[in-house]
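FW: tagging you since you asked about this chain on Friday. Here's the raw sequence from the shared folder, copied in full. Didn't touch anything.
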Amino acid sequence: MQKTLILGLLALTTGCATTGALRPHEVPGAWIALNASPVHLGDQNYSGQSFNQSRVGSQSWCSIVRVPRATSAAVRIEGLRNTERPTNQIRIDGESAMLPMLLSQGTGGSSLSAQMSTTWEVQLAAGPHEICVVAGRNDLNPADIDDFEFTALLLRAEGTSPAEIENRVIEVLPDVGRAPTEVAQRAPAGWNH
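HL: got it, structure written out here
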C-alpha cells in the first residue's frame, strides 16, 4: 500500500513538472528557420569551386514573415559559403547589408570550403516583412552572377514565440539566365495571394 502511494505521488509530481513545459515552437525568442532546405543562388557559371547543396534555383531567395507586434529581432544566416562578391546582399525590407566574403585561400586549386554564420539585429513593426538573400553581379562582368550557398536563414523575435510568426517563401524564378537580381528590391508582397 505504501509502495503504491509513493509511486502514485511520484507519477503525479512528474506529470505536474512536465505539463507546463513549453514546446520549442512555443518558447518566446526561439530561433525559427525560414527555409526548409539549403539554398544555392547564382547562375551556375563557376569553376574551381565545389557546391554540396541544392541546385541553383534563382538569383535571389526571399521570404515574407509576419510578426504579431513590434519587436527587436535578429536574422542569422548559417552555413554561408563561396561568397566572392561585395554585391552579395541580405535585404530586410529593402535595407541592404553586404554578406561576408569567403574568398579562396590557397593556391592548390582547392574549393572554398570555409563556412560562416553571421547575425543582423533589426527592429520589426507589427505586420509583414520581406527578408531576401541576393546573389550579386560581378562589376567587371555584369553577365556573371556569383554562385554561393547557405544552409539556413533563421529569425528570432524578442518576446515572440515561433508559433506566432507566419513565414512564406516567395516563389523563385526558374529561369536563372534572365532573372533580375533586383527581384529582391521590391516592396513586401501582399500576404493574401
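FW: The helical segments are 2-19.
HL: agreed, and Residues 9-19, 106-112, 174-193 have pLDDT under 50 and may be disordered.
FW: great, closing this out.
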